[in-house]
Fold each of these.
Amino acid sequence: MEDVLQIKTVSKHFGGFTALSGVTLSVMRGERLGLIGPNGSGKTTLINCISGSLLNDEGDIHFKGEQISKLPAYQRTRRGISRSFQIPRPFRSMTVLENLLVPLSYVRGITGRQADEIAEDILKGMGLAYKMNAECSQLSQVELRKLELARAMAAKPELLISDEAMAGLAGAEIDEVLAILFSLNEQGITIIMIEHIMQAVMAFSQRVVCLDAGQIICEGTPKEVVANEYVQRAYLGD
Ligand code: ADP
Ligand code: MG
């Protein structure tokens, strides 16, 4: 299978602090990749560098064979990279449907009736269509998480990066979000899942990468990564 994303020796510094150091990683088209690591290990920073919220200081990022590391975020979105945020960022005064019309218009230039129909389809896929006319302030935690994924999907991504979409959710809600991500992957979307909930990320991922202090310390099948002594040490913190 072909690599859709290639990250080559990417580093990112904040002042004197190194948040990412020489990260090299390829993601295959259609893959389900899990990204784990303790708090502060650089997961969100890596996603920010891929999506363009931040520019990496060293290294290269290629998407579909094109160097994208210097492109602004909106141009990466237009090329097919979309991400959800760890802390949901809906337009709070808008309805659920209106929240999807923004990326539909801005990223894909689709407006009017056609945009309404696409937005409704996406919301149906998320099991959120029944709330399409609700204001975001009326949504529960799991509904906000689904909206966050729906907003990312409105950009019609080929690569979807989900940053802790299950944080703060419990039992059945985790399974609901997991099922959504599986179904998006079945539609051909490559997915990088950042997740603290081990059961979820291990059930979802074909391959798992573990970051610690800005470096990849282990990569393999869920089974291999769970059994790895560096991963266990990073999580047990000794
Ligand atoms: P994770 O998502 O794995 O919890 P982050 O990527 O958010 O970790 O953060 C990695 C490290 O980089 C942390 O120590 C964090 O404090 C630091 N960091 C992240 N973003 C910034 C920023 N914009 N300015 C300064 N430090 C940052
Ligand atoms: Mg994070």
Amino acid sequence: MRKKIVAGNWKMNKNLVDTKSLLEELKSKIGDDTTAEIIVAPTFVNLSTASESLQTSKIKVAAQNMHQEDSGAYTGEISADMLKNIDVDTVILGHSERRAYFGETDELLSKKVNAALKHEMSIIFCFGEELQDRRNDNHFTVVENQLKNGLFHVDTSSWKNIVLAYEPVWAIGTGETASPEQAQEMHAFIRKTIAGAFGQDVADNVTILYGGSVKPNNAKEIFSKEDVDGGLIGGASLDSESFSAIAAAI
Ligand code: PGA
């Protein structure tokens, strides 16, 4: 079912002490009366603490990444089973920083998608074009290919566990946002692409988030667009004041 979601990707920020205090602040500021689904994604080492701290809260916890294998000799990696074992059943896959700095390809991501689905996890699947792609008027093709190569092998029934996050790379952490019109244009294209491959019902029900410099002062306008169902927030999710303001904007 199509939902309203505001998710905070903390990236490599917040040690244990800071994680605990941010979670306490969020619990008191966001409360349980929010109609949207609120998700936070702290770093791996603090996931367990976060999932315990949020046990009785409506705020959910997600991991920022995971490995495609269940276990084995993969030094430094984390599996779906390990996440589920600490009550984390949502994972962000394909973030542009994972793609750019850690060499994650569409092919690898398709395996991670399979692993997450196999373990009945929910996925926030990220994709988006670079500045050059947009300048070359190639952004729709790039996005379509990222979706096709990373995701389109799944069964129709798997879409209930998939949330999409369109994040133009040129807008991530740069202070530059896609205009609400640019976001809407791309989100409508994404929905149409999904409809073409999986049918209108799947397309109507998939939640599509926008990410890239969403702040309290622009969230409302972006979220008001028809095909924008919420946001994936980086920088502004590290502060309880701004993240709760964005959550309220939905
Ligand atoms: P930003 O990051 O809000 O800091 O631009 C968004 C993201 O990386 O998901």
